[in-house]
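call fold(seq) -> C-alpha cells
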Amino acid sequence: PFGAYVTTNGGTSFTRYGSGNGLPTDDCRAIAFFDGATTASHFCVATGFGIAYTTNGGTTFTIRNSASSPAIANDCRDVDYHDGTASGARFAVATGSGVYHTSNGGGAFTQRTAAGATTIPSNDVRSLRYSEVDTTGATWLVGAWFTGPAPGGAGLTTNDGGAFTRFLPNTVVHGVDYHKGISGSWAVAHSTGLAVTTNNGGGFTTYTTTQGLPSNDVRSVAYAGGTSTASTWLVGTDEGVVRTTNGGTGFTTFRKGTLSSNLHAAVTTTLPAGTAIRWQVCDASWVLLPDAVLP
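ret:
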C-alpha cells in the first residue's frame, strides 16, 4: 500500500505510516528528517493533503493543511529542515501554491508566492533546500516549474524569503540541492540538464548528455554530505542515475538489470545513522534501492 515507510535499522524492517496512523492521506510525496538531533525522532512527511510532522519518532503527528489552524496548501511536494535550528523548529514546505515556512515548529507559517520580480519564480514549487552554512536559516533555495507568465527556474533568498534572486528562467525545475558544508555550492536539476554553481549563482556549469548524463531530463540531484569538497554527487534522470566523484569531469552509471527510470536520489555519508548505506535511489516504481543493490 501507499504511505511513508521509515526504517531505523538500515532497511531490515520498515514502519508504514498512512491515513490510518497519523498522516492525512496515503499520497506521500517527500519526507525529511531533522538531522540536528541525535535520534530520528523529528521528521516531516509532505503529502497530497498537507504535511504531517512528528517530534517523537512517529508516535504522534501534527497535521497542517487547508483544514488546520494555521492552514497551509494541501498540494505539498517537498519539505526540508534547517538542521542548525534547535529542536527542528525551522522547516519549509514546497507546494502548488508557493512556499510555506515556519521558525517556531509549525505554530505559524509565512507563505511566499510569485508576485513580482524579487519573489519566488513560480507558485508551482517542486523542491527546496536550506543552506546549512548559514546558521541562521535565512538562506534557502527553491526550484519551480515554468508555468507562464511566471518564469519558473530557481530562486535564492538570503533573508528568509523577504526577497529572491532568480536564476535559470523559463525552465522546468524538478529538484535542487545545497552542499551542506560549502558556501555557494548548489545544483539545479531541470528538464534540459543539470546546472551547478560554486559561487552562489554567479555562474553555472551545465551538464547534459554531451558531458555524460544518460538523459537531459534531470529529475534530481544530491550532494554527498560530510565531504570537504563539492566533488561527489548523484544525478537522477528519466534514463538512469549517474555518479561523479570528480566534480563532473566524469560520470559512472548506476544501473542494475532492466532498471532504467531512477527519479529520486539521496546521498549522505551514513544514512540511516550507524549503517554503511551511503547511496539511496528511489526508482520509477518507488522502490528504495540502497547502495548494496546498485552495481
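The mean pLDDT is 86.
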